[in-house]
Design a protein that fits this description.
- Helix 10 links the parallel strand 14 and strand 15.
- 49% of the residues are buried.
- The chain is α/β, with parallel strands linked by helices and 321 residues long.
- It contains 10 helices and 15 strands.
- The structure holds NADP nicotinamide-adenine-dinucleotide phosphate (NAP).
- The site of NADP nicotinamide-adenine-dinucleotide phosphate has 32 residues, from helix 4, helix 5 and strand 9.
Amino acid sequence: MKAVVHHSYGSPDVLKIEEVEKPAVTDDGVLVRVHASSVNPAEWYGMTGLFIARLMGGLFKPKDPRLGGDFAGVVEAVGAHVTDFKPGDEVYGGRSGAFGEYVNVKNAVARKPANLTSEEAAAIPTAAITALQGLRDHGKLQPGQKVLINGAAGGVGTFAVQIAKAFGAEVTAVTSTKNVDMVRSLGADHVIDYTKEDFTKSGRQYDLVLDIAGGRSWHEYKRILKQTATFVIVGGPKGNKWIGPLGNTLKLKMASMGARQKVVFFIAQFTREDLAILRDLSESGKMKPVVEKVYPLEQVADAMRHLGTGHARGKIVLKIY
Ligand SMILES: NC(=O)c1ccc[n+]([C@@H]2O[C@H](COP(=O)([O-])OP(=O)(O)OC[C@H]3O[C@@H](n4cnc5c(N)ncnc54)[C@H](OP(=O)(O)O)[C@@H]3O)[C@@H](O)[C@H]2O)c1
């Protein structure tokens, strides 16, 4: 089968499409013919070879040359112990190596939202699960609370705005001029254009801040946090080649030691339950993926370059089949 591979770390130029072995369906697995995938910063760091990622993924060259995490497609075969899926089911989920024609997936797979195309569904898993877990599990978001989302126009941010609204929060979204209208159309109650206004000097305070874009100091963030607030760190600027955006996280964690506010960093986990919740949000019309562009598999390097600008609008999708 065809798949995107990289045999060395580097820029998107290292990406190639090669014939690789098709995964075999395991007894507890679901073999999915992948129709679409989407790109995330995780793939960027896997491709460029951030030092901390190399510790697990191969110090000098990738142990597993395949790339990709999100998929939407059709079940081709199921393992002997699988009873909840059958060939022909339309599904979506997360599995490494999803920039290829097939994945064998065990847990992180669920029925695809019926109202979405494969390209739209493939935009959901990593970004929307991150938004959901950041707001619900780590932010403990309650109806009526005031939440600020810094980095509202990207993959995670566009889902976060919609999920926070679905939870009944009052949402303030931070983005640049070109995305103000788009973010408002997703339901944000207030939109701050960071090129014109410093949101840390607005005088307003929040119960929860979801920091996706990062790049500001704890001293600045503290001004907009209520005493009882929670500050959830999702991501940050690309940082250096050793620890990347974790540098931003460490700085904030250290500077906030002893603060009254709760400061949390987390790594999102794929779960079948959350994929089902996101499907329900989609099917009930409360959440819709924003897809800026769909690239054919052959243009995976261009898709990665687009993501790498740091200014993708919603999600960048790869059409596999
Ligand atoms: N913790 C986790 O489990 C987890 C999971 C997924 C992602 N992440 C991290 O979360 C971050 C975002 O991921 P993503 O998928 O949303 O990336 P993305 O789609 O590439 O985000 C791009 C968006 O960031 C916005 N942005 C850039 N600079 C900004 C600034 N100074 N202020 C406000 N917004 C700004 C851009 O909006 P404008 O063009 O309007 O500037 C753009 O829409 C990354 O650091 C990623 O590594 C963490």
